[in-house]
Amino acid sequence: MTQVRGDFAQLMVPGLKKIYLDADEYEQREKQYPMLFNVKSSDSEFEQELEMAGVGPLQEKPENSSTVYNDMIQGGSRRVTHLTYSLGIRTSKELWDDDKYGLIKTGPKALARSTRFTEEVVAWNIINNGFSSTTGILTFDGQALFNNQHYLLGGSQATNIAPGLTNIISAAGTYPNRPPTDIDLSVAGLQLMTNYANRMVDNQGMPINVKFKHILIPSELVFITREILGSTGQPYTADNTANSLLPEDYHFLVGNYLTSGSAWFGFADKQYTALTVWMREKPNTDFDDDFDTDAVKQKTRMRMSASCFRWQGVFGSNGP
Amino acid sequence: MAANLTVHSPVIPVQTTSGNTPQTNGIPEKASQTFPSGAPVQLTTGYVAIWNGTTYANGILGFSNIPASNLATNGAGAPGVFGQIGGNQAIQTYGSVPNQPNAVNIALGTPITDGRTLVLLANSDTIFEIQVDASSGGTYALTQANVGTQYGITIDTGGTCYLDIAKTTVGTNTCAQVVGLNPIDGLLANGHARIVIVAPQLYA
Fold first, then answer.
1. Which of A138, A157, A276 to mutate to test the interface with B (most CBs of B within 10 A)?
2. So what's the ipTM on this one?
3. Most CB atoms within 10 A, among A80, A236, A254, B40?
4. Is residue B104 one of the residues assigned to a domain?
Protein backbone atom coordinates (compact mmCIF):
# COMPACT_ATOMS: atom_id res chain seq x y z
CA MET A 1 0.00 0.00 0.00
CA THR A 2 1.03 3.61 -0.17
CA GLN A 3 1.41 5.91 2.82
CA VAL A 4 -0.88 8.87 2.23
CA ARG A 5 -1.57 12.10 4.11
CA GLY A 6 -4.87 10.93 5.52
CA ASP A 7 -3.06 8.29 7.57
CA PHE A 8 -0.61 10.83 8.99
CA ALA A 9 -2.76 13.90 9.49
CA GLN A 10 -0.90 14.79 12.72
CA LEU A 11 2.23 15.43 10.70
CA MET A 12 0.67 17.99 8.40
CA VAL A 13 0.88 20.96 10.73
CA PRO A 14 3.51 22.11 13.25
CA GLY A 15 2.72 22.08 16.95
CA LEU A 16 3.58 18.65 18.27
CA LYS A 17 5.98 19.00 21.19
CA LYS A 18 7.61 15.62 20.68
CA ILE A 19 7.12 12.59 18.50
CA TYR A 20 8.31 9.31 19.92
CA LEU A 21 9.62 7.50 16.91
CA ASP A 22 10.81 3.98 17.68
CA ALA A 23 13.97 4.39 15.67
CA ASP A 24 14.90 7.53 17.62
CA GLU A 25 13.91 6.48 21.10
CA TYR A 26 15.51 3.10 21.52
CA GLU A 27 18.67 1.79 20.02
CA GLN A 28 18.55 -1.75 18.89
CA ARG A 29 20.75 -4.29 20.59
CA GLU A 30 24.15 -4.74 19.12
CA LYS A 31 24.49 -7.53 16.61
CA GLN A 32 24.56 -10.71 18.62
CA TYR A 33 24.93 -13.51 16.11
CA PRO A 34 28.58 -12.75 15.21
CA MET A 35 29.48 -13.80 18.77
CA LEU A 36 28.71 -17.41 17.93
CA PHE A 37 28.32 -17.57 14.16
CA ASN A 38 31.10 -17.47 11.62
CA VAL A 39 30.15 -14.86 9.03
CA LYS A 40 31.12 -15.75 5.49
CA SER A 41 30.38 -14.25 2.12
CA SER A 42 29.09 -16.22 -0.83
CA ASP A 43 29.01 -15.58 -4.56
CA SER A 44 26.78 -18.51 -5.50
CA GLU A 45 23.16 -19.58 -5.54
CA PHE A 46 23.95 -22.02 -2.76
CA GLU A 47 26.88 -23.39 -0.80
CA GLN A 48 27.49 -27.10 -0.50
CA GLU A 49 29.68 -28.76 2.09
CA LEU A 50 30.94 -32.28 2.64
CA GLU A 51 32.15 -34.22 5.64
CA MET A 52 35.09 -36.61 5.51
CA ALA A 53 36.42 -39.02 8.09
CA GLY A 54 40.03 -40.08 8.34
CA VAL A 55 41.13 -43.59 9.19
CA GLY A 56 41.06 -45.53 12.44
CA PRO A 57 43.97 -46.12 14.80
CA LEU A 58 47.09 -48.01 13.82
CA GLN A 59 46.93 -51.78 14.12
CA GLU A 60 49.57 -54.02 15.58
CA LYS A 61 51.49 -55.81 12.85
CA PRO A 62 53.00 -59.21 13.70
CA GLU A 63 56.52 -59.85 12.52
CA ASN A 64 56.89 -59.98 8.73
CA SER A 65 53.17 -59.76 8.14
CA SER A 66 51.64 -57.30 5.72
CA THR A 67 50.51 -53.85 6.66
CA VAL A 68 46.76 -53.45 7.05
CA TYR A 69 45.18 -50.80 4.90
CA ASN A 70 42.19 -48.70 5.75
CA ASP A 71 40.11 -46.21 3.80
CA MET A 72 39.10 -42.70 4.58
CA ILE A 73 35.31 -42.27 4.50
CA GLN A 74 33.36 -39.78 2.45
CA GLY A 75 30.43 -38.63 4.51
CA GLY A 76 27.20 -36.90 3.66
CA SER A 77 26.88 -33.58 1.91
CA ARG A 78 24.67 -30.66 2.80
CA ARG A 79 23.56 -27.59 0.97
CA VAL A 80 22.41 -24.18 2.11
CA THR A 81 20.50 -22.02 -0.35
CA HIS A 82 20.42 -18.29 0.15
CA LEU A 83 17.05 -16.64 0.54
CA THR A 84 16.19 -13.09 -0.40
CA TYR A 85 14.65 -10.76 2.16
CA SER A 86 13.18 -7.48 1.04
CA LEU A 87 10.84 -4.75 2.24
CA GLY A 88 9.78 -1.42 0.83
CA ILE A 89 7.94 1.73 1.86
CA ARG A 90 5.91 3.65 -0.67
CA THR A 91 4.88 7.22 0.12
CA SER A 92 2.74 9.60 -1.84
CA LYS A 93 4.62 12.64 -3.10
CA GLU A 94 2.15 14.84 -1.30
CA LEU A 95 2.85 13.20 2.07
CA TRP A 96 6.56 13.24 1.36
CA ASP A 97 6.46 16.99 0.77
CA ASP A 98 3.89 18.06 3.38
CA ASP A 99 5.26 16.23 6.44
CA LYS A 100 6.33 19.12 8.69
CA TYR A 101 8.53 16.98 10.89
CA GLY A 102 10.57 15.08 8.35
CA LEU A 103 9.60 11.75 9.89
CA ILE A 104 8.32 10.23 6.71
CA LYS A 105 11.74 10.68 5.19
CA THR A 106 13.26 8.49 7.91
CA GLY A 107 12.02 5.36 6.18
CA PRO A 108 15.54 4.06 5.61
CA LYS A 109 16.19 4.21 9.36
CA ALA A 110 13.13 2.05 9.93
CA LEU A 111 14.19 -0.32 7.20
CA ALA A 112 17.63 -0.61 8.77
CA ARG A 113 16.06 -1.69 12.03
CA SER A 114 13.97 -4.26 10.20
CA THR A 115 17.06 -5.54 8.46
CA ARG A 116 19.00 -5.91 11.70
CA PHE A 117 16.15 -7.87 13.24
CA THR A 118 15.79 -10.12 10.21
CA GLU A 119 19.49 -10.94 10.15
CA GLU A 120 19.40 -11.88 13.81
CA VAL A 121 16.30 -14.03 13.61
CA VAL A 122 17.50 -15.91 10.54
CA ALA A 123 20.73 -16.73 12.34
CA TRP A 124 19.30 -17.61 15.74
CA ASN A 125 16.59 -19.79 14.24
CA ILE A 126 19.31 -22.29 13.43
CA ILE A 127 19.49 -22.77 17.19
CA ASN A 128 15.81 -22.21 17.97
CA ASN A 129 14.81 -24.88 15.45
CA GLY A 130 17.80 -27.09 16.19
CA PHE A 131 15.82 -29.71 18.07
CA SER A 132 13.58 -30.51 15.10
CA SER A 133 14.48 -32.36 11.92
CA THR A 134 11.48 -30.87 10.14
CA THR A 135 11.73 -27.18 10.94
CA GLY A 136 15.46 -27.11 11.57
CA ILE A 137 18.47 -27.76 9.40
CA LEU A 138 19.99 -31.21 9.20
CA THR A 139 23.60 -31.97 9.98
CA PHE A 140 25.83 -34.06 7.72
CA ASP A 141 24.49 -37.27 9.26
CA GLY A 142 20.90 -36.27 8.48
CA GLN A 143 19.92 -35.63 12.08
CA ALA A 144 18.61 -32.52 13.77
CA LEU A 145 21.38 -30.24 14.99
CA PHE A 146 20.85 -31.21 18.64
CA ASN A 147 20.37 -34.94 18.82
CA ASN A 148 21.02 -37.69 21.29
CA GLN A 149 22.29 -40.01 18.56
CA HIS A 150 24.49 -38.40 15.93
CA TYR A 151 25.80 -41.11 13.65
CA LEU A 152 29.57 -41.48 13.40
CA LEU A 153 30.96 -42.35 9.98
CA GLY A 154 33.06 -45.04 11.60
CA GLY A 155 29.93 -46.73 12.92
CA SER A 156 29.98 -48.96 15.96
CA GLN A 157 33.68 -49.59 15.46
CA ALA A 158 34.23 -45.92 16.24
CA THR A 159 32.39 -46.12 19.53
CA ASN A 160 34.20 -49.36 20.36
CA ILE A 161 37.51 -47.63 19.79
CA ALA A 162 36.60 -44.47 21.66
CA PRO A 163 37.65 -44.56 25.30
CA GLY A 164 34.91 -44.58 27.92
CA LEU A 165 31.85 -43.91 25.84
CA THR A 166 29.64 -46.50 27.42
CA ASN A 167 28.48 -44.03 30.03
CA ILE A 168 27.59 -41.42 27.44
CA ILE A 169 26.16 -42.97 24.32
CA SER A 170 22.73 -44.49 24.08
CA ALA A 171 23.37 -46.42 20.85
CA ALA A 172 26.48 -47.94 19.34
CA GLY A 173 27.98 -45.88 16.54
CA THR A 174 26.49 -42.62 17.75
CA TYR A 175 27.45 -39.68 19.93
CA PRO A 176 25.09 -37.23 21.63
CA ASN A 177 25.09 -33.46 21.77
CA ARG A 178 21.74 -33.43 23.55
CA PRO A 179 20.81 -35.34 26.71
CA PRO A 180 18.73 -38.49 26.22
CA THR A 181 16.14 -36.77 28.38
CA ASP A 182 16.24 -33.01 28.22
CA ILE A 183 17.48 -31.53 31.44
CA ASP A 184 17.02 -28.09 32.97
CA LEU A 185 19.93 -25.74 33.26
CA SER A 186 21.42 -26.93 36.52
CA VAL A 187 24.66 -28.09 38.08
CA ALA A 188 23.91 -31.62 36.87
CA GLY A 189 23.08 -30.35 33.40
CA LEU A 190 26.28 -28.38 33.07
CA GLN A 191 28.28 -31.31 34.37
CA LEU A 192 26.66 -33.55 31.77
CA MET A 193 27.46 -31.07 29.02
CA THR A 194 31.03 -30.77 30.25
CA ASN A 195 31.43 -34.52 30.15
CA TYR A 196 30.01 -34.66 26.62
CA ALA A 197 32.69 -32.20 25.55
CA ASN A 198 35.48 -33.98 27.37
CA ARG A 199 34.56 -37.34 25.81
CA MET A 200 33.74 -35.99 22.35
CA VAL A 201 35.24 -37.97 19.49
CA ASP A 202 35.71 -37.64 15.76
CA ASN A 203 34.01 -39.88 13.21
CA GLN A 204 36.53 -42.64 13.81
CA GLY A 205 36.12 -42.56 17.58
CA MET A 206 39.28 -40.69 18.43
CA PRO A 207 38.96 -38.00 21.09
CA ILE A 208 38.98 -34.42 19.89
CA ASN A 209 39.82 -31.26 21.74
CA VAL A 210 36.43 -29.68 22.22
CA LYS A 211 35.90 -27.18 24.97
CA PHE A 212 32.50 -25.60 25.42
CA LYS A 213 33.06 -22.02 26.47
CA HIS A 214 29.80 -20.22 25.94
CA ILE A 215 26.56 -21.06 27.71
CA LEU A 216 23.70 -19.57 25.71
CA ILE A 217 20.54 -18.98 27.70
CA PRO A 218 17.24 -17.15 27.36
CA SER A 219 16.61 -14.24 29.68
CA GLU A 220 14.41 -16.47 31.86
CA LEU A 221 17.51 -18.39 32.97
CA VAL A 222 19.74 -15.42 33.79
CA PHE A 223 19.30 -15.59 37.54
CA ILE A 224 19.76 -19.31 37.94
CA THR A 225 22.83 -19.12 35.72
CA ARG A 226 24.32 -16.42 37.92
CA GLU A 227 23.65 -18.55 40.96
CA ILE A 228 25.25 -21.62 39.44
CA LEU A 229 28.27 -19.98 37.87
CA GLY A 230 28.70 -17.15 40.37
CA SER A 231 28.89 -19.13 43.57
CA THR A 232 32.30 -19.99 44.97
CA GLY A 233 30.79 -22.91 46.85
CA GLN A 234 28.67 -25.66 45.37
CA PRO A 235 25.31 -24.04 44.64
CA TYR A 236 22.28 -24.92 46.77
CA THR A 237 24.23 -26.93 49.35
CA ALA A 238 25.05 -26.05 52.96
CA ASP A 239 28.43 -27.73 53.12
CA ASN A 240 31.68 -26.16 52.08
CA THR A 241 32.26 -28.06 48.84
CA ALA A 242 33.91 -26.00 46.12
CA ASN A 243 31.95 -25.06 43.03
CA SER A 244 33.57 -27.50 40.65
CA LEU A 245 32.14 -25.74 37.60
CA LEU A 246 34.19 -22.59 38.11
CA PRO A 247 37.43 -23.97 36.62
CA GLU A 248 35.54 -24.62 33.40
CA ASP A 249 35.47 -20.83 32.96
CA TYR A 250 32.07 -20.81 31.30
CA HIS A 251 30.77 -17.50 30.03
CA PHE A 252 27.07 -17.12 29.65
CA LEU A 253 25.38 -15.20 26.87
CA VAL A 254 21.79 -14.07 26.96
CA GLY A 255 20.23 -14.74 23.59
CA ASN A 256 17.57 -12.12 23.03
CA TYR A 257 16.33 -13.97 19.96
CA LEU A 258 15.89 -17.35 21.61
CA THR A 259 12.27 -18.43 21.58
CA SER A 260 12.24 -21.04 24.35
CA GLY A 261 12.33 -19.92 27.93
CA SER A 262 13.90 -23.15 29.13
CA ALA A 263 16.20 -24.43 26.37
CA TRP A 264 19.89 -23.80 26.95
CA PHE A 265 22.98 -24.42 24.91
CA GLY A 266 26.72 -24.81 25.01
CA PHE A 267 29.12 -23.75 22.29
CA ALA A 268 32.81 -23.94 21.66
CA ASP A 269 34.51 -20.85 20.29
CA LYS A 270 33.05 -20.24 16.87
CA GLN A 271 36.18 -21.24 14.99
CA TYR A 272 35.58 -24.75 16.34
CA THR A 273 31.94 -24.95 15.26
CA ALA A 274 30.19 -24.98 11.89
CA LEU A 275 27.72 -22.27 12.87
CA THR A 276 27.74 -19.99 9.84
CA VAL A 277 25.84 -17.02 8.53
CA TRP A 278 26.23 -16.69 4.78
CA MET A 279 25.90 -13.23 3.32
CA ARG A 280 25.22 -13.49 -0.40
CA GLU A 281 24.20 -9.86 -0.75
CA LYS A 282 24.72 -7.38 2.04
CA PRO A 283 21.71 -5.27 3.00
CA ASN A 284 21.31 -2.42 0.58
CA THR A 285 18.76 0.32 0.15
CA ASP A 286 17.45 1.85 -3.02
CA PHE A 287 15.11 4.69 -3.85
CA ASP A 288 12.98 5.50 -6.82
CA ASP A 289 10.03 7.61 -7.87
CA ASP A 290 7.01 6.17 -9.58
CA PHE A 291 6.70 8.03 -12.85
CA ASP A 292 2.92 7.96 -12.99
CA THR A 293 1.96 8.65 -9.37
CA ASP A 294 5.15 10.43 -8.27
CA ALA A 295 5.10 8.22 -5.18
CA VAL A 296 8.47 7.79 -3.48
CA LYS A 297 9.65 4.23 -3.05
CA GLN A 298 12.31 3.14 -0.57
CA LYS A 299 13.44 -0.45 -0.51
CA THR A 300 15.93 -2.61 1.34
CA ARG A 301 16.96 -6.09 0.29
CA MET A 302 19.55 -8.68 1.16
CA ARG A 303 20.31 -12.32 0.46
CA MET A 304 21.51 -14.51 3.26
CA SER A 305 21.26 -17.90 4.89
CA ALA A 306 22.51 -19.71 7.95
CA SER A 307 23.74 -23.22 8.52
CA CYS A 308 25.44 -25.60 10.93
CA PHE A 309 26.07 -28.96 9.30
CA ARG A 310 28.49 -30.27 11.88
CA TRP A 311 27.30 -31.10 15.37
CA GLN A 312 30.67 -31.22 17.09
CA GLY A 313 31.25 -28.17 19.26
CA VAL A 314 27.60 -27.48 19.96
CA PHE A 315 25.26 -28.78 22.65
CA GLY A 316 21.59 -28.20 23.36
CA SER A 317 19.02 -29.22 25.95
CA ASN A 318 15.42 -28.33 25.34
CA GLY A 319 14.70 -27.58 28.96
CA PRO A 320 11.94 -29.93 29.88
CA MET B 1 -8.27 -37.13 -35.23
CA ALA B 2 -5.76 -36.36 -32.51
CA ALA B 3 -3.65 -33.28 -32.09
CA ASN B 4 -1.13 -32.60 -34.83
CA LEU B 5 1.79 -32.51 -32.39
CA THR B 6 2.49 -34.71 -29.38
CA VAL B 7 4.42 -32.08 -27.45
CA HIS B 8 4.00 -28.34 -27.51
CA SER B 9 5.97 -25.26 -26.58
CA PRO B 10 5.90 -24.15 -22.96
CA VAL B 11 3.43 -21.38 -22.32
CA ILE B 12 5.27 -18.15 -21.60
CA PRO B 13 4.22 -14.64 -20.63
CA VAL B 14 5.01 -12.23 -23.44
CA GLN B 15 3.32 -8.99 -22.41
CA THR B 16 1.36 -7.32 -19.69
CA THR B 17 -1.37 -4.81 -20.21
CA SER B 18 0.09 -2.55 -17.54
CA GLY B 19 3.65 -2.82 -18.76
CA ASN B 20 4.73 -4.22 -15.39
CA THR B 21 6.59 -7.45 -14.84
CA PRO B 22 4.27 -10.47 -14.97
CA GLN B 23 3.13 -11.40 -11.48
CA THR B 24 4.97 -14.43 -10.16
CA ASN B 25 4.49 -16.16 -6.85
CA GLY B 26 6.35 -18.95 -5.05
CA ILE B 27 3.79 -21.41 -3.70
CA PRO B 28 4.41 -24.76 -1.97
CA GLU B 29 4.29 -27.61 -4.45
CA LYS B 30 2.07 -30.66 -4.10
CA ALA B 31 3.82 -34.01 -3.74
CA SER B 32 4.74 -36.14 -6.77
CA GLN B 33 4.42 -33.38 -9.36
CA THR B 34 6.43 -33.78 -12.56
CA PHE B 35 5.11 -30.94 -14.72
CA PRO B 36 7.60 -29.08 -16.88
CA SER B 37 8.11 -25.35 -17.08
CA GLY B 38 5.30 -23.63 -18.92
CA ALA B 39 2.58 -26.08 -17.90
CA PRO B 40 -0.87 -25.06 -16.66
CA VAL B 41 -1.18 -25.48 -12.91
CA GLN B 42 -3.84 -25.23 -10.26
CA LEU B 43 -4.06 -25.03 -6.51
CA THR B 44 -5.07 -28.33 -4.93
CA THR B 45 -5.68 -28.04 -1.19
CA GLY B 46 -3.40 -25.02 -1.28
CA TYR B 47 -0.52 -26.69 -3.11
CA VAL B 48 0.47 -26.26 -6.73
CA ALA B 49 -0.31 -29.22 -8.98
CA ILE B 50 -0.74 -29.76 -12.68
CA TRP B 51 -4.11 -28.47 -13.90
CA ASN B 52 -6.67 -31.26 -13.99
CA GLY B 53 -7.51 -30.46 -17.62
CA THR B 54 -11.23 -30.42 -17.09
CA THR B 55 -12.04 -27.48 -14.83
CA TYR B 56 -12.29 -24.61 -17.26
CA ALA B 57 -14.04 -22.04 -15.12
CA ASN B 58 -11.84 -20.87 -12.25
CA GLY B 59 -9.58 -23.86 -12.81
CA ILE B 60 -6.20 -22.57 -13.99
CA LEU B 61 -4.05 -20.74 -11.46
CA GLY B 62 -1.37 -19.88 -13.99
CA PHE B 63 1.59 -21.47 -15.73
CA SER B 64 4.66 -22.95 -14.10
CA ASN B 65 7.81 -20.87 -14.34
CA ILE B 66 10.07 -23.77 -13.35
CA PRO B 67 9.78 -27.55 -13.58
CA ALA B 68 8.23 -29.44 -10.69
CA SER B 69 10.53 -31.09 -8.14
CA ASN B 70 8.64 -34.37 -7.62
CA LEU B 71 8.53 -33.82 -3.87
CA ALA B 72 8.01 -36.71 -1.48
CA THR B 73 5.44 -34.77 0.54
CA ASN B 74 3.47 -31.60 0.02
CA GLY B 75 5.79 -28.58 0.18
CA ALA B 76 8.73 -30.66 1.43
CA GLY B 77 11.58 -28.38 2.42
CA ALA B 78 9.72 -25.09 2.16
CA PRO B 79 11.27 -22.70 4.67
CA GLY B 80 9.34 -21.72 7.77
CA VAL B 81 9.20 -18.19 9.08
CA PHE B 82 12.79 -16.88 9.05
CA GLY B 83 13.89 -20.49 8.65
CA GLN B 84 16.12 -22.21 6.17
CA ILE B 85 15.10 -24.40 3.31
CA GLY B 86 14.74 -27.83 4.84
CA GLY B 87 15.51 -31.34 3.70
CA ASN B 88 18.32 -31.90 1.25
CA GLN B 89 17.78 -28.68 -0.73
CA ALA B 90 18.57 -30.55 -3.93
CA ILE B 91 16.53 -32.60 -6.34
CA GLN B 92 19.07 -35.37 -6.78
CA THR B 93 20.99 -37.48 -4.31
CA TYR B 94 22.74 -40.74 -4.97
CA GLY B 95 24.18 -43.78 -3.24
CA SER B 96 24.41 -43.94 0.52
CA VAL B 97 26.72 -42.87 3.31
CA PRO B 98 28.43 -45.52 5.46
CA ASN B 99 26.94 -45.92 8.93
CA GLN B 100 24.68 -42.89 8.53
CA PRO B 101 21.24 -44.00 7.34
CA ASN B 102 19.84 -40.47 7.14
CA ALA B 103 22.80 -38.86 5.39
CA VAL B 104 22.82 -38.20 1.65
CA ASN B 105 25.21 -37.51 -1.18
CA ILE B 106 23.97 -34.44 -3.03
CA ALA B 107 25.00 -34.56 -6.67
CA LEU B 108 27.15 -31.53 -7.30
CA GLY B 109 25.43 -29.20 -9.73
CA THR B 110 21.99 -30.65 -9.21
CA PRO B 111 19.37 -27.88 -9.05
CA ILE B 112 18.05 -26.69 -5.76
CA THR B 113 14.59 -27.42 -4.49
CA ASP B 114 12.92 -25.35 -1.85
CA GLY B 115 9.54 -27.04 -1.65
CA ARG B 116 7.91 -24.33 -3.69
CA THR B 117 7.28 -23.73 -7.34
CA LEU B 118 7.17 -20.42 -9.12
CA VAL B 119 3.86 -19.76 -10.82
CA LEU B 120 3.19 -17.11 -13.44
CA LEU B 121 -0.22 -16.10 -12.22
CA ALA B 122 -2.95 -15.92 -14.81
CA ASN B 123 -4.33 -12.56 -13.83
CA SER B 124 -6.04 -10.34 -16.33
CA ASP B 125 -2.89 -8.28 -16.79
CA THR B 126 -0.68 -11.02 -18.17
CA ILE B 127 -0.76 -12.08 -21.80
CA PHE B 128 0.61 -15.55 -22.45
CA GLU B 129 1.75 -17.11 -25.68
CA ILE B 130 0.61 -20.65 -26.36
CA GLN B 131 0.97 -23.03 -29.27
CA VAL B 132 -2.13 -23.79 -31.34
CA ASP B 133 -3.38 -27.29 -32.05
CA ALA B 134 -6.66 -29.18 -32.16
CA SER B 135 -7.67 -32.32 -30.33
CA SER B 136 -10.05 -33.17 -33.18
CA GLY B 137 -10.53 -32.05 -36.75
CA GLY B 138 -7.84 -31.29 -39.31
CA THR B 139 -7.30 -27.57 -38.88
CA TYR B 140 -4.40 -26.51 -36.70
CA ALA B 141 -4.12 -22.82 -37.49
CA LEU B 142 -5.92 -19.67 -36.45
CA THR B 143 -6.97 -16.84 -38.71
CA GLN B 144 -7.10 -13.15 -37.99
CA ALA B 145 -10.83 -13.51 -37.56
CA ASN B 146 -10.28 -15.75 -34.54
CA VAL B 147 -8.83 -12.95 -32.46
CA GLY B 148 -11.26 -12.34 -29.63
CA THR B 149 -12.56 -15.89 -29.67
CA GLN B 150 -12.46 -18.16 -26.63
CA TYR B 151 -10.96 -21.65 -26.83
CA GLY B 152 -10.09 -24.45 -24.48
CA ILE B 153 -6.70 -25.69 -23.41
CA THR B 154 -5.60 -29.33 -23.58
CA ILE B 155 -2.64 -30.88 -21.79
CA ASP B 156 -0.40 -32.96 -24.06
CA THR B 157 1.58 -36.10 -23.32
CA GLY B 158 4.68 -34.07 -22.46
CA GLY B 159 2.91 -32.19 -19.70
CA THR B 160 2.73 -28.89 -21.55
CA CYS B 161 -0.42 -27.81 -23.30
CA TYR B 162 -1.91 -26.21 -26.39
CA LEU B 163 -4.71 -23.90 -27.33
CA ASP B 164 -7.28 -26.40 -28.46
CA ILE B 165 -9.23 -24.80 -31.28
CA ALA B 166 -11.57 -27.78 -31.28
CA LYS B 167 -12.91 -26.63 -27.93
CA THR B 168 -15.17 -23.71 -28.63
CA THR B 169 -18.23 -24.07 -26.41
CA VAL B 170 -18.05 -21.00 -24.23
CA GLY B 171 -19.01 -21.77 -20.67
CA THR B 172 -18.33 -25.45 -21.11
CA ASN B 173 -14.84 -26.14 -22.40
CA THR B 174 -13.19 -22.75 -22.96
CA CYS B 175 -10.88 -20.82 -20.70
CA ALA B 176 -8.60 -18.72 -22.91
CA GLN B 177 -9.37 -15.74 -25.05
CA VAL B 178 -7.19 -15.01 -28.04
CA VAL B 179 -6.02 -11.41 -27.86
CA GLY B 180 -3.46 -11.55 -30.63
CA LEU B 181 -1.33 -13.74 -32.84
CA ASN B 182 2.40 -14.20 -32.94
CA PRO B 183 3.48 -11.96 -35.82
CA ILE B 184 5.83 -14.58 -37.19
CA ASP B 185 3.92 -17.84 -37.07
CA GLY B 186 0.51 -16.86 -35.74
CA LEU B 187 -1.30 -17.74 -38.93
CA LEU B 188 0.58 -20.97 -39.62
CA ALA B 189 -0.36 -24.48 -38.56
CA ASN B 190 0.65 -25.00 -34.94
CA GLY B 191 1.59 -21.37 -34.68
CA HIS B 192 1.45 -19.35 -31.49
CA ALA B 193 -1.44 -17.30 -30.18
CA ARG B 194 -1.52 -14.69 -27.45
CA ILE B 195 -4.13 -15.29 -24.83
CA VAL B 196 -5.46 -14.26 -21.48
CA ILE B 197 -7.06 -16.77 -19.15
CA VAL B 198 -10.71 -15.80 -18.96
CA ALA B 199 -11.65 -17.14 -15.53
CA PRO B 200 -8.50 -18.09 -13.64
CA GLN B 201 -8.55 -19.91 -10.33
CA LEU B 202 -7.70 -16.74 -8.43
CA TYR B 203 -8.83 -13.27 -9.46
CA ALA B 204 -12.11 -14.87 -10.49
1. A138
2. 0.84
3. B40
4. no
